User: What shape does this take?
Amino acid sequence: MSLSIDFLTFLLNKAILSQYFWLPVIGLLHLSIFLILHNKKISMLGVLLSLLAWIAIGHPLIESIQNAGVDSFLELRAPDVREVIFWLYSNLGSTLPSLDYVMLWAAIAFIYTLFWTTLSILLRSKELFLFNKLCQSLCIIFLILWMPFISIAEKKSAFELASNQFNLTYAAFNSDDSEIKISSFSKGLPVFLYIGESTGSMHMQIYGYPRMTTPKLNLFLDQNQDNFIKVPNAWSTHTHTIPSLLDAFSVKEKQSKSSDIASIFQRTAHPLIPLLAKANIDTHIIANHVHDDFLSIVFDQAKTLVVPKIDHGSLDPFKELNTFDHEVLQQALAMLPSEKEIPRALYIFHSYAGHGDYESFIPPAFHNNVDDLFLDIPASAVMGNISFKDVDHIESYDSAVSYVDDNLVTSLNYIKELDSPMVFIYFPDHGESVYSRRGHDSSKFISEMAQIPLFVYFNDLAIKNNPDLFHLIQDRLRNNKFATLSQIPSLLSEVLGVEIVNQLTAESLIKCKIGLINCQDEFLLVREVTDNKSIVRTQTSQQLRSDMIDKTDSATDHYNLIREIDGLSDVGVCYHRSNTAAKAIRGLSVTNCLEFDVMVNNQDVDIYHPPAKKTGFTFETMMAIAQNRNATLWIDGKNIQASMECQALKNKLILYKAASTNFFIEFPSSVFDIEDKPEICINEIKMLGFSTSYYVPQAATECALDIKQGIDFNSSNSCEELQNRILWVAESGYFTDISFDYSAYEAVRAIKQSKDLRWNIWGIDINTASTLPLDTFHLIIPSNQDPNTL
Assistant: This one.
C-alpha cells in the first residue's frame, strides 16, 4: 500500500512541477478542437500557431519565471528590444520537459479530452448546449490565461523587492565610512583595467578551448611569459553585469553569521573608488557600456567618467551603443598621460563586445568563423539533446571572442611600449553559455556563465620598480585554485599600494589576498527568489537552510569535488558520457578527465551510446578537443570485443600517443565470450602504456544486493560468478584495472583478488564521492545532469 502511495505522490509532484507549461498546452488544444466543432477553421489555425509558439518558448519562459529573482526583474527596468528578441531566440530549446513529463501529461490530456467529449455527448439537448459551451469556454480561459498568471503572481514579493531594490542597495553601499582609513605605500603602481562583457574562459583558446579564438593572446603570452600572468580558475559571483560589478568594485563588510547571507544587492559594502580617492588615487573611466543607476553607485565618483547614456523614454534606450569597442578603446588608451612618470591611478575601459546579439557588436571583419572545427559535424554531435540546434549561434559568439582577443592584445602592446610603469588587468563581468542556449540567464545557472578569464600583466618598468610585488602576485595567481570577482578589490589595492583599514579595530577590511586557498565567500552565487534564496554552492556537501534552493549544476559540482580532494588523493574525477562536443568541452573546463562511449564500425571509431544512433561525432573530433590538455580519456568500448574492433581502436590510439593524453580503455564484460578473442591486441595496448580495464559484469551488483540482504557470500551464485571472473582477470595479465557501478562496490571489495587491480567506478552521487576511501580508486565518474547529453 505504501508503495502505491509513494508512486501517486511521485506523479502528483511531477504534475505540480510542470503544470504552468502543460495546462496552457491542454487549454490551447481544447480551444482548437472547440473552434473546429464550431466551424471556425481560420481562428483554429491561429490557435495552433500559438500552440507551436508556446511549445517552442513556453518551457524556458516558465522556468525563467519560476526561478526569477530580484536580479531577473532588475533586467527589465530598461528593456532593449534587441536584447529581448535575442533572449527569446537564444533560449529556444534551452530547457525542455523530460520524457516522463510528456508521458504523464499526455495521459492527463487524454483523460481531460475524454471527459469533455463524454460531457458533450450527454449535454446534446438544446437547453444544455449553451451551458456546456459556457463551461468549456471558462475552462479554456482558466487554462490558457489563469495558470500563467498564477505563476507570475507567485513572484509578487520578488517583484516588490525589485521595485525598491535601488534604494536598498544604495543604502547598503553608502554606509558610514568615516571610520575607514586608507594607508598608502610608495611602491604602488598605476593600473589600466579592461572590463569585458559576457566573455567566458571556456571559449578562450588560451584556456584550452579547442578553437582558434585567442591566437593573438597565445602569441603575446609566448613572447612575454616573464611578465604575463594567466590566472586559472577564476569565477564571477553573478551572471549579470550589475551585481557582478557591484561586487568587484566594493569592499564588503564581513557577514557575522550564516543567517546574514544575502545577495550582492542586499549586503553592506563600501564602494572602492571613493576609498581610493581618500589615498589621492584618481579613477578615470571610459566605457562603451551603459552604466545605469546601480552601477553609478560604484562608478559615479570617478574623476573622469565617459559613458553612453540610457534614454529611458525611447523604444531603443541603448541607442548610444553604436560604436565598436576598438574605437572607444583608443580613447581610453589616449587618456593615459604621456609623461614618463604616470601618476598612480586607476584607468578603466569598460567594453561591450561579447553581449548578444553577438555579431551586432563586432565589426564585419570578424563575422567569419574562427576555424572549421564544426564545419562538417552535424549539429546533434555538437549540441546533443538541445532542441533548435544552431551551431551558427556558437560560431557568432566565438567570433566575438576573437574580436575581444584583438582588442586585448592592442591594449597589452600599448601598455608594453609605455615609457612608464603600468600594470594591465583584464576580467569580464561574467561568462556566457551558448552551447546550452541559456545565455547568462541566472535562473538557469550553468558553470560557464561564471567561469571567466583573468589576466595580469606588468610591463618591464613595472617589474623593475616593484619586482617583489610582481613575484608575490605571480606565485599566488599562477597556482590559484579558486578566485572570484569578490577578490578584485584585494588585487587592485595590492597593486595600487593601498591598505583599507577599520580604525576602530585596526583590522584590514580586505583580509583575503586573491589566489589564496579557502579565501572566498561561503557561496558562489546568492539570489533572492520570492521568499527564498537561490544558491550555487562552493562545496559538494554544503548544508543549506530550509529557505535556500540549491541551483548548483553538475559541472560546477565536479569542479567543487576536485577542489575538495585536491592534495588528499590522486584519484581522477571524470565527466560522464561526454558524447557531444559541447559536453566534452564543458567537462574539460571543470575536470581533466572525460568518459565517452566508442563504437567501432569497420575502421571508423565513432562516439555514441547504443541504442542511440551515430551522430557523426568521431574520435578525431574528440582528440581535436582534448589533445594537449594533459587529460585522461576513459574510453568505454561498447563493442571492442573482437580482434578487428580492438585493432581499429589501437591504430587510433597510436596516432595520438604523443598528444599529451592518457588513455583508459574499458573493455566490455563479454570481451572473451566470442571466438575471435583480442588477447594480443589488448596486450599491445597495455604495452603502449595505456590503462586496460575490464568491465565487471552485472553479477557484481547482484552479489552486492545478496550481501546487503544477509546472504552469505559463499552461498550466493552471483558472488561465486563474480569471484571466478575477477580471479581470472587478475591472473590473465591482460588488464591493469577493473571498472564497475558503485552499486557493486561492496561485492568487489569482498573479493581478495580484486585488490591486485586498480578500481574505477561510475554511477556515484557527487555528495557520496567525497566520502569514499579515495586512495582505493584510480578514476571515478560521478553522475551528472548535463544539458548537452546525448
Q: What stands out?
A: The longest helix spans residues 2-37. The first strand starts at residue 180 and ends at 184.
